[in-house]
Design brief:
The chain is elongated and about 65 Å long. The chain is of the alpha+beta class. It has four helices and nine strands; from the N terminus they run E-E-E-E-H-H-E-E-H-E-E-E-H. The protein starts with a strand and ends in a 10-residue tail after the last helix. The protein has a single domain, classed as GMP Synthetase, Chain A, domain 3. Strands 4-3-7-8 form a four-stranded antiparallel β-sheet.
């Protein structure tokens, strides 16, 4: 729910829905994961529903919203051991839900919002904080670029 304060001292309330379920912005990832598992379990055959649930239960879902493009993103972080066939299965199921389910993945006051789902098995390195990935401090990441500035390289023929 989003509240907006208007100049005439009134409040307007906007309700987000994730797959037809009222949701607060901070809950989007958790609600989406629970709803998508529930929808697939109800709507497909028992074997595919169980397989989808088993694959998704080990995943971490992150939610991001790009304010410039107004695209909602659900990024599903899967284990690195996941096979290509399982990844394809997950994508096929998500496309099937997107095409057949009555409610949009994300809606605001009943209006459809653009959305994308990204499946990934790659782990982003942590650049700051206590759990920094070894070799990925900001100095280590930019060291090759900085070294390249001082090294002799190929002559730029278009310069002078």
């Amino acid at each position: 729910m989003r509240y907006i304060y208007y100049q005439d001292n009134t409040f307007g309330c906007f309700m987000w829905k994730i797959l037809g379920t009222d949701s607060l912005y901070v809950e989007f990832a958790d609600v989406w994961k629970k709803r998508i598992i529930g929808i697939v379990s109800e709507g497909t055959d028992e074997e595919n529903g169980k397989k989808f649930g088993d694959l998704m239960k080990d995943s971490e879902v992150l939610y991001m919203m790009n304010g410039a493009t107004e695209i909602h993103t659900f990024m599903v972080q899967l284990p690195e051991t996941l096979s290509h066939d399982d990844l394809q299965f997950l994508s096929d199921v998500i496309l099937d839900v997107a095409n057949t389910y009555d409610e949009p993945f994300v809606s605001l006051n009943g209006n459809y919002e653009k959305c994308q789902v990204i499946f990934t098995t790659e782990k982003e390195p942590e650049l700051i904080g206590l759990d920094k990935t070894k070799g990925f401090s900001s100095g280590a990441v930019f060291a090759p670029i900085l070294e390249g500035w001082g090294n002799a390289g190929r002559k730029n023929e278009t310069f002078m």
